[in-house]
Specification:
Elements (H helix, E strand, L loop, with lengths): L15 H5 L5 H30 L7 H30 L4 H19 L3
Length: about 120
């Protein structure tokens, strides 16, 4: 296995990504952070929504909280979908990558505006 074989030349073993010249791009990492954060918030809000729907018969005060919770859940579900689309586009580099990044930027701006204190 690890024996010297005279007369044979071998090419150095390199990872496939290095052989193809691919490098980790900072935008790809940042989009991963955005996607992970948005997905975690969406997952958490979904869990809270399920609990509220299950407990609303026992606690009448939860009825007033379902509509705002649904608004926040929808907002973060849209943000998660756009972040996932942008993450995919940054990895594959299709022609519509710029449009997906612009959509994510608008969604982030809209989310910030929604939660900005008045």
């Amino acid at each position: 296995m690890n024996q010297v074989q005279y007369g044979k030349t071998f090419e150095p073993v390199t990872p496939r990504s290095a052989a193809l010249g691919a490098r980790m791009r900072p935008a790809f990492v940042l989009l991963g952070f955005v996607l992970g954060s948005a997905a975690a918030i969406t997952f958490s809000l979904t869990g809270v929504m399920i609990i509220f729907l299950l407990l609303r018969t026992e606690h009448a005060r939860l009825d007033a909280e379902i509509a705002p919770l649904a608004t926040h859940l929808a907002l973060f579900a849209i943000l998660t979908a756009l972040a996932g689309l942008s993450f995919y586009a940054e990895g594959k580099r299709p022609p519509w990558r710029g449009a997906s990044l612009a959509g994510l930027a608008l969604a982030l701006a809209g989310t910030i505006a929604f939660y900005w204190p008045e």
